[in-house]
């Protein structure tokens, strides 16, 4: 019983990591309408920045996060401008855009191998103090991860709900054409979405590094399909759905990990993804009928 | 030199099979299988475990099945197994009508399979993979020199590639092939002729994965060994690069693309100056393939050999002025801004 409760606690930590990535991915997917297969690489870059700033240069963990957000946010905007924009101009083609993001993932991951080498960099945990919350033991770092996730996603929710930019994003997510027709500068909003999505990747990368204690070139990519699973479960373009799905996924993964071989944890997440696709193709929280 | 030539042509023949299969999926009907290499791996592993038997061929390794069926059945089993997994996955994901769902599902499948196979020794001997896989006609050619055996295998590989090439061409000209391209161009129009687009996609996915499995089977028989390193995601993009560079939707393009990309990228790095550290060669190759893919998609999406329209009533219909890559099954109004 104790193992169960403890693993639910770890599940919340894993869920926080997945949630940050999934929310960032879902936001961009919803607005631009194509999946970014290079998102895992965005996280990896964030993790490296966090490592260099916090572990190598001994700055506070939050300085590392801000630096990572700045770098990955700029990277995302830059890639949107330089790489995606020319493909979107004219008649956009979903399949082509997907391959472009996959190719970007390949390029970035290999660049990291060249620049940062394939060594495992040990990320120094910000806090190893033990805390007990009810029956569950957390380290300070793990509580920090949960707090960061709640803060980041809460802030995004406020942005989406109460600001003009957020409303424009939601409008574009519903229909880019209608949004443009009603006077929204869709170019600018798209750029803002890439910036925010990139910034979430920065936070997610650092948080991921804190959670697994190390950074290496395939770090983000190995979590990518968990983000996808959460995004699809939650329904595309619904950050809250992604958040709830991330909690479900995180708890299922960690609880099962306590009882079965750790190698099958990913398999279980995949099984959940397939079941969702089979039973609720539009996500667990879909309200409207599928539009064809 | 002769041996090198035999080796490279054999590898090209095997990669032509991969490219043809991917071209059916991506080129004909426009479904995106990002985990294509996983199906190659399934074919390779199944071929191995259905031909290794109990002998283990001098290696201590764990694996399932322990069959020992006569050649070429193992290769065929490999193809069928890959097709079965592909069809299963496609049935689940393709109902969603969106290209990205299948892409996500295939990517996830590849990643999950990779972790499970690498961490579970009892399936296919874990990350180390299987070795000592019997080669075709090994007993009859036991005394043959390396060159002679290489030549025999080259002929086998070329025969396989030729048969599959002719089959693909037959498919392209068949009603099913026309239907596939119709689905790619405009799903609604295709559907209005009374056939279900899902059928075209399933068929393309199944056939393409079968090709991947056959190619994987030949690959493991040629190398006699196959481990996790052989199916890194990077390998999928070598095949994608081959199809896109060669000309999406064009079978001859797949052949040309496989030859160019494989020889150009894989083999030219052999002659790099020694001053470049060897650990940079692999990643450098990855970057190069990625850049090549993006540049081609941007500036020459139709590839080196553009798809030509099939003859209708004895007349050849030329490719339109703006050859487009396969349009997605459903472009839910992508951002136009």
TL;DR?
Chain A is mainly alpha-helical. Helices cover 74% and strands 4% of the residues of chain A.
Number of strands of chain A: 4
CATH architecture of chain A: Orthogonal Bundle
Whole-number average pLDDT of chain A? 87
Radius of gyration of chain B equals 20 Å
Helix proportion range of chain A: over 70%
Membrane topology (chain A): Multi-pass membrane protein
GO cellular component, one term (chain A): plasma membrane
Protein name (chain A): Branched-chain amino acid ABC transporter permease
Subcellular location (chain A): Cell membrane
Describe the structure in your own words.
The complex is a heterodimer of chains A (292) and B (337). Chain A is mostly helical and 292 residues long. Chain A has a single domain, classed as ABC transporter involved in vitamin B12 uptake, BtuC (Orthogonal Bundle). Chain A contains 11 helices and 4 strands; from the N terminus they run ααααβββααααβααα. In chain A, the strands form 2 sheets. A two-stranded antiparallel ribbon of chain A has the order 1-4. In chain A, strands 2-3 form a two-stranded antiparallel sheet. In chain A, β2 and β3 form a beta hairpin. Chain A is globular. The relative contact order of chain A is 0.21. With 337 residues, chain B is an all-alpha fold. Chain B has a domain of 230 residues. Chain B is built from 12 helices and no strands. In chain B, α2 packs across α9. Chain B starts with a helix and ends in a 38-residue tail after the last helix. Classes of the chains: A mainly alpha (292), B mainly alpha (337). At the A-B interface, α3, α4, α7, α8 and α9 of A face α3, α4, α10 and α12 of B.
